[in-house]
User: Fold this.
Amino acid sequence: MKIHTRAISLTTVRYSDTKSIAHLFTENLGSVSFQIPRVAGKKGSAFRSLYVPLSVVELVYDHKPLRQIHLVGELQPLLIPSAPSRSLVANGVAIFLTEFLHRLLAPMQGEEQGALFRTILSAIDALDKEPDVVLASLHLHLMVRLLDDFGIAPDHTGYRPGYLLHREEGCYVSSFSASEPERNTSRLLHELQQHPLPSVFAMNREDRGRLLDLLLSYYDFHLHGIGDLKSLPVLKETFS
Assistant:
């Protein structure tokens, strides 16, 4: 079956001296792996975009349901993020999002993923356009938006000042034993659920760190498979 789709490059792994395996998230069929050449010069110019994490491409390929690794027929780069090469903040956020999205999206295979794709695409577009003050919280914005796409967003309608996120129940509840930082982190999550992506959202380094830990814990409980991210220390060091 011939597939014409947009795709986001997440990771590439060297397969041999002449080939690599690229893991892409496609708009039409979710996560798909491709064999791509490791070549220089004009012949490999289009494929080089796939070696830049979070690059967006348009491609045509012959999809075979029983095949684990596919071959690219045609490929056209649409967006290659340049901000990570200019900004330490953009670089740290891009490295983290690449690993997080690869873990999160790997099971999403074989079905149309238009809404989810567009949510991620809006964040990648912001990565190259927005100032560092917005990028500093971009990963948190995207993680919160994706909760809706995966159907696991906490019910925020019952939130009251001082309430705490109940991770297992997916809602906000009163708690007399919670510390002030815990209450503040739940407040930030509730407020972020109301903000569009992207937007300026005032948080200091400690706020961002605690909210990120809360979101990762929430994802890991409800979806499993996220696990420890090697890029997390890099991201936290960026804001230290």
